[in-house]
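QA checklist item 7 of 12: single-chain prediction sanity check.
[x] sequence parsed
[x] length recorded as 191
[x] structure emitted
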Amino acid sequence: MSEQSLTYESIMKMIRGIARRQKETDRQMKKHDAEYALMRKELNRKIGELTGSIGRMVEHMLGEGILDKFRALGYEVDDYTRNHRYRHSKLGIKGEIDLILHDGDVSILIEVKTTLETADVRKHLEKIEKYRIYANARWNDPTRFIGAVAGAVVTDEAKDFALENGLYVIVQSGDAVEIVPTPEGFKAKEW
């Protein structure tokens, strides 16, 4: 069309055509967005299931074998509890400890992750603090708590941060697990 042949009616017709095409495009995009959201939700669910399965596998790997590793460090651990849930309604404290090794007057609280990162170590330190408050309020428990973190994959930053904060670090080693050698002067932090 030349400038001279553009009339009000032809301009309005073009605008209405563009608006119709835009409306149809918006409708198709909403349909695709809804389909994408469903696919993403399903993918996240499956990833969650896989991560949970790997986490349970790592927890099971730790079980009996880790008792021997801590005995070699001088702890007389003879029992362990998996997935210990706790709750104190009045204090508003609740949580879960993945694995607790029992040694009479000392309990080793272990956080298990598929991939252990620094943020996980920070959360575990906070979790141990909460559990100390819970145990004191619940039983006036004299048990000393120490902490450890474990992962199928452990980042160097997480390992260093955990050791700096007095936590033992447990890593996968071949078919078993091992406790990372502690640096000279390491002392496990007690709660």
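[x] summary fact logged: The chain has a mean pLDDT of 87.
[ ] second reviewer sign-off
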